[in-house]
Design brief:
By secondary structure, the protein is an all-alpha fold. It is built from 21 helices and two strands. The protein folds into two domains: about 270 residues, no CATH class; about 200 residues, no CATH class. The chain has a two-stranded antiparallel ribbon with strand order 1-2. The protein is globular.
Amino acid sequence: MESNPLLLGTLVTPLAGAIVTLLLAQSNQLQRSIAVLTGLIAWVFSVALLVQVHDLGVQTYALGNWSPPYGIVLVADSLGALFAFMVTTIMIGGLLYTFHCQDRCMTYPAFMPLFLLMEVGLVGAMLTGDLFTLFVFMELMVLASVSLTAISDDQYGLEAALKYILISSMGTLFLLLGIASLYATFGSLNMAEIAQTLLTGERPILAPASAFMLLCAFLLKSAVFPFHFWQPDFHTTAPTPISAMLSSIVVKVGVYGIIRLVTLLFVEEAPLLERWLSTLGIIGILFGSLAALRTYNVKRMLAYSTFAQIGFILVGIGWGGALAITGAIVYAFNHAFIKSALLLLMGVLASYTKIKTANFADVTGIGKKLPPALGWLVLLGGLSLSGVPPLNGFVSKLTLIQGGVDRGDWLNLIIIVGAGILTLMYMVRAWQNIFQRQPTIGAVETKEAGDSLVAPFLLICACLLLGTVFAEPLIQLVSATVSDLQDPNIYISGVKLYGNGT
């Protein structure tokens, strides 16, 4: 379908919401209500777009009615539509949490507009068909998330934000160098145009260098070793709904970019890139799992856990093959729900303490003073992250392991299974320390009321449904997505046919 307005609706809705909430800066409660409504409308657009892509194939929208490769085009193939749906769904959870959140930073006039601008950057990165526009959307996402972290109630928020913006500039440099080398070679930044030339033409000398620079940029955005050191401070000090978005969907922008590299743009270089991805993924799994066992803060533990979870995804991409990439995408999708739910739950936990802390030394044993539902939800989230059935984490690990068996990489499979056991150890230990032990002498005083459990409860319910009722439909949907990814001409023809007006 030419000029599908659903693409524009999915992207423009949160942008319009950001503008409206900024104009309504005098009424914070109205800002939050409009932001939630905006998130719901964007989600409806993304659902309709996902259905259309599944039924009709690649959907496009040329901005300004300039056809590609001369103009900027929005493209929704099966991968982009799936990731956009994931982003808008998790963003609803974050927006709902802000509705009853007691953090002081939530009352700042710029908070909700920045939150919605972060969604614009995320959705735009998933749906753009142009490399420079991808850069613009990624930078919008970074600037919004950095600003939101800088205004956090945490005293170290500004330090963490400055640290990340400095490190992110390195990723920006890699990304711009990669984009510049591609433009110098092809005279175009349209991904379909570049992919078609690389598939059919002579291999340009800058192709491997461009692939390496773009890979480095996406690895930094996903906090993959050796570009990982900014993540624990940044994710831990951010306001709770922002922290949940950072560890669940913001890091997936890098994953999305990596999948595009190995399946669309640099298919010939993919085997070399995949070997690097497997190695870095295993390092991330080991480092993240062991660091999560030894950290002093519950939110920081989950931030280190993200290292490991992204490592699982990278190993799946590195294995290559339909089964392994299916496992990686299923893992990325399910992880977004698990991690956002857990971090929102930790925010609820901290909100019940008078000094708003999630340090183990302060919160050990306080669970007995908190609503029992909080403890049970944390346990379910931890079991899901560990891969215990019938939650969606089990589906993720099972599909990934099937991909490893298909590739015959037994050593890495053993490491993955062992890391799953480590995940169970640190999640169950954290739950026991907080909700099963008697309060310690150093435990903080608690309040009678805290943040609402509605948003994390809904996300945990989604984890249960994705592990049972929707497990098979999700796997089938991702399998169809991977089938499309294995033929780059599906994406190329979807964009080029539109550009040719046929």
